[in-house]
Specification:
The protein is an all-alpha fold. Helix content is 74%, strand content 0%. 14% of the residues are buried.
């Protein structure tokens, strides 16, 4: 046997082994990547169902009661939103938490003013927060991101 014949015999043996190994590697890679995407989509669905949609429905319901216009959030709204966020902390975007915390600081300031020496005219039902729609816009942006992730497309 010559060197070329030996190399051909070895390649006949190694070729199927390499092919099977490569196929197994690519199959495993595809499986883990697909599993990761599937888990990510399930988290997005859960975030929409349990966090973002309930808050948007509440805001829209309040807007309808106020004559179809969004005036902002009240201190009572903050309590309800904070309760939803607390139950689903792992699903809430950091940007929304930061805005909520900023608004909670504003409420604490108003309460300290109310019970301090100065007189405050703001009640718990007054919608004095989010007048610039910062929270609402961020909430819709995050919800739309998750909707796109699970297959809903927006222009």
């Amino acid at each position: 046997m010559t060197n070329i014949e030996i190399i051909l015999e070895i390649s006949k043996v190694l070729s199927p082994i390499i092919t099977v190994g490569l196929a197994a590697f690519l199959t495993a890679r595809y499986y883990f990547k697909n599993k990761q995407v599937d888990y990510s989509m399930k988290l997005s669905e859960k975030a929409i169902e349990e966090v973002y949609n309930p808050i948007i429905v509440k805001i829209e319901k309040d807007a309808i009661n106020d004559g179809f216009s969004y005036e902002g959030l009240s201190a009572d709204d903050l309590v309800a939103i904070d309760e939803i966020f607390s139950k689903n902390r792992h699903l809430v975007e950091e940007s929304l938490l930061n805005i909520l915390w900023k608004y909670q600081e504003d409420v604490h300031f108003e309460l300290s003013t109310l019970y301090g020496n100065e007189e405050s005219q703001i009640s718990f039902e007054d919608k004095f927060l989010d007048s610039n729609h910062e929270f609402l816009n961020e909430l819709k942006k995050v919800r739309n991101f998750h909707l796109k992730r699970i297959g809903f497309y927006f222009k």
